[in-house]
Design a protein that fits this description.
Length: 225
């Protein structure tokens, strides 16, 4: 059975909760942390359990008399897997620097007044992206290009809101939502296309490693200056 990006997301969150509490985790606790239904969390944990990465146990349910509740504990293999993923660099650092330089150059072209040509180039490049990290980087500058085209107070409002976000991942998700809302109000014709892009972007963000999320957050802050 394959450990997909979606399953990795659930496993990483459960491992984080276990490390914080040192106690087996109930699937409803995991569901609340991820913003999904308890049944989605339970089904996902059962799938991960079958891979040998979780150990099931039972504990008293304080809310329903004598009934027990299902709890999950990550195995040593699961903890090692999550640790290795967190420590793993996001590809070749030189490749990332090249990607970063390319997207910032394209964004500079937008600021110089050539939004149409720059967006065509960015959209063409985006379709060739195979790595989630690079897809997110190009998505960020495309969203920024539309935001700058909208201009006015909207751009400054989004900039301040994103810069004050409490975490890097929240910064990236807030940014996408804010840009989408702003652009739909000023450029309705671009709304449907951007909504589709934002959806793919948010899914890609969820699948990034912690290190990659830091890179994307830093790119966003740098591009907003």
């Amino acid at each position: 059975m394959l450990l997909t990006k979606r399953r990795k997301q659930f496993l990483r969150q459960l491992v984080d909760l276990y490390r914080a509490t040192k106690l087996p985790i109930h699937y409803e606790t995991l569901a609340s942390a991820l913003g999904v239904s308890k049944w989605t969390a339970y089904d996902m944990l059962k799938a991960i359990e079958r891979m040998g990465l979780l150990i099931r146990s039972y504990g008293p349910n304080r809310g329903e008399g004598g009934r027990s509740q299902v709890l999950f504990t990550p195995t040593a293999q699961a903890e090692e897997l999550c640790k290795a993923e967190a420590d793993e660099p996001a590809g070749n650092p030189e490749e990332w620097q090249a990607t970063k330089a390319a997207v910032l150059k394209l964004l500079g072209g937008v600021r110089a007044g050539g939004i149409g040509e720059a967006l065509q180039r960015m959209n063409a490049d985006l379709k060739r992206m195979k790595r989630s990290r690079d897809f997110c980087a190009y998505s960020i500058v495309i969203l920024l290009a539309h935001l700058q085209h909208a201009g006015g107070r909207t751009e400054e409002f989004v900039r301040q809101m994103v810069q004050k976000a409490p975490s890097g991942e929240m910064r990236m998700t807030m940014f996408a939502g804010a840009v989408l809302g702003a652009v739909c109000q000023t450029m309705a014709e671009a709304g449907a296309e951007l909504a589709e892009l934002a959806g793919h972007y948010l899914k890609s963000v969820a699948g990034l490693t912690d290190h990659e999320k830091e890179l994307m957050s830093d790119l966003l802050l740098e591009a907003l200056v």
